[in-house]
Amino acid sequence: MALMPVADALAAILSDAQALPEDLVALDEAFHRTLARDVASLRTQPPAAMSAMDGYAVRAADAVLNARLTVIGEVAAGRPLGGPLSAGQAARIFTGGVVPDGADAVVIQEDTTRDGDVVVITEAAKPAANIRGAGLDFREGDVLLRQGTRLTDRDLSLAAGMNHPRLPVHRRPKVAVLATGDELVMPGTIPGPGQIVYSNGFAIRALARSEGAEVVDLGIAGDTIEATAEAIRRGRDSGADILVTTGGASVGDHDVVQRALKSEGVEMTFWKVALRPGKPMMHGRLHRPSGVMRVIGLPGNPTSSYICAFLFMVPLIRALSGRSSVAHIPETAILGNDLRANDQRQDYLRARLETRADGQVVASTVSHQDSSLLVNLSAARALIVRPPHAPAVKAGEACAILKLPA
After folding, report:
1. Reported pTM
2. Dihedral angle at the C-alpha atoms of 387, 393, 396, 399, nearest 10 degrees?
3. Alpha carbon 337 to chain centroid distance?
4. What is the pLDDT of residues 96-125, one digit of tens each?
């Protein structure tokens, strides 16, 4: 089977990835969820002209230098005056107070002196001074949050100000993660002969959660078709939108994941991608009455597993979440070391990043690129992307990078 180019593999994974149905959730549950439709304001903000400062509401025509105005009342936030200002009058006003009818300026208290019920103007007023007009921020009916927006903390504050207690967002994708391998034991266990401590799933589940997915841990399945198929069924029955497997994706006698997937009715889309690390990655779909479960089969080596999850699982989660932008966007950096010519596979080199005094970012490869090395994966802050057959390049030349999650 020919190796599939990375771009084609991603296109195949995303080909039918439609946003999941809408949920209406409380504001406190909407952080980093994706809006399912445009949201318009239910109110005008400010709803009326408000004072921007502590001082006196006045008629600018009256508030000339050394004018003496009669103070007829006080305006605090939430406590309007209740009547208009007439000629020669002023109202004590505090920040956030509604400007009384008839007033068209606020003189800050530092530009006045008070003499009982009279305020003396020591700096002439200018029309509209220190007033926030009605609708300065937004008006009822303004569409301020757009479909496809991944909601930030500031967006939630805006939605609250728009008077929305709940927001229409897409359902979170559910990602089930299954490890395979007789050799795997959980952290905290003393490994026996030939055993290794399982690590891949912790990074993959954290990565999925960081993209807003709900995560199901299916544990570790042994290297038999029966054990792997039983775990796949648990993933299916959990309602997972994405099943991610790690390990067992290669061609050895004990690599049974693909056979188990096919035995459970998964239609394989591709197997083997022209990238390094991660060539044995595979993808398929299981059609259920409740909808499609998409399967991403990751290699077992920790670096291969993580990079494939970053490159393929993350965009799929974003697409199912309804995000308006799903692809990783390459950035430009300066190479910190020479790189030799590349072969027919697209290479993703783990790299450290350093920002120079002139602001340019320098990307230098970690010491060893072996796909089993956890220390160098942890140290990496970016991937240097090397297209197939890229020529050798020298330190100081430009390169494309994908920044890894912080």
Report:
1. 0.89
2. 0
3. 32
4. 999 999 999 999 999 999 999 999 999 999
Radius of gyration over every alpha carbon of the chain, rounded to an integer in angstroms: 31
Q: Do 36 and 22 contact (CB within 8 A), yes or no?
A: yes
Shortest CA distance to 17 belongs to which of 175, 173, 207? 173
- Round to whole Å and give the CA distance between 159 and 22: 17
Q: b/e per residue, 54-74, with b = 16+ CB within 10 A?
A: bbbbbbbebbeeebebebbbe
Tokens of 113: 């002196």
What domains lie within the chain, and their CATH numbers?
A: 6-21+171-321 (3.40.980.10), 22-45+137-170 (3.90.105.10), 50-132 (2.170.190.11), 331-403 (2.40.340.10)
pLDDT tens digits along 341-383: 999 999 999 999 999 999 999 999 999 999 999 999 999 999 9
Q: How far apart are CA 356 and CA 344, in angstroms?
A: 33
Pick the closest to residue 178 from 95, 237, 106 (CA basis): 237
Q: What one-letter code names the amino acid at 359?
A: G
Ramachandran category for residue 363: left, alpha or beta (phi over 0 → left; psi -120 to 50 → alpha): beta
Three-state SS letters, the chain: CCCECHHHHHHHHHCCCCCCCEEEEEHHHCCCCEECCCEECCCCECCCCEECCCEEEECCCCCCCCCEEEEEEEEECCECCCCCCCCCEEEEECCCCECCCCCCEEEEHHHEEEECCEEEECCCCCCCCCEECCCCCECCCCEEECCCCECCHHHHHHHHHCCCCEEEEECCCEEEEEEECCCEECCCCCCCCCCEECCHHHHHHHHHHHCCCEEEEEEEECCCHHHHHHHHHHHHHCCCCEEEEECCCCCCCCCCHHHHHHHCCCEEEEECECEECCCCCEEEEEEECCEEEEEEEECCCHHHHHHHHHHHHHHHHHHHHCCCCCCCCCEEEEECCCECCCCCCEEEEEEEEEECCCCCEEEEECCCCCCCCHHHHHHCCEEEEECCCCCCECCCCEEEEEECCC
Q: Contact 262/268 with Cβ under 8 angstroms? A: yes
Q: CA distances (Å), 164 to each of 33, 142, 156, in order?
A: 15, 13, 9
